[in-house]
Amino acid sequence: MLSFDAPRQPQPNAYEAAFPDLHVLQFQYRTVQLNELRWADFLQRTNPVAAALMAKMRIDPHTIARE
Fold first, then answer.
1. Does the global pTM surpass 0.85?
2. What one-character DSSP code corresponds to residue 50?
3. DSSP state string for 13-59
4. Hey, is 25 helix, strand or coil?
5. Tens digits of residue pLDDT in 9-58
6. Which residues touch 56 (CB under 8 Å, ≥6 apart)?
7. CB neighbour list of residue 19: distance below 8 Å, 6 or more residues apart
């Protein structure tokens, strides 16, 4: 789970440690990048974790001012 505010571009979903002649380690994983998710999509959820993570999601200041 990635919770930083920037950068907003998609982050890698794999890690590899290798030498020129040997692959030592390779991980592939799913990323959940909070700053790419819309907070409003989670507004009606009853899950307290979703509510806590909404602060790191993409928030449009104009939307908040209207609500």
1. no
2. H
3. SEEEEEETTEEEEEEE----BGGGSBGGGGTT---HHHHHHGGGSB-
4. strand
5. 778 889 999 999 998 999 998 888 888 888 888 888 888 888 888 878 87
6. 3, 5, 34, 35
7. none
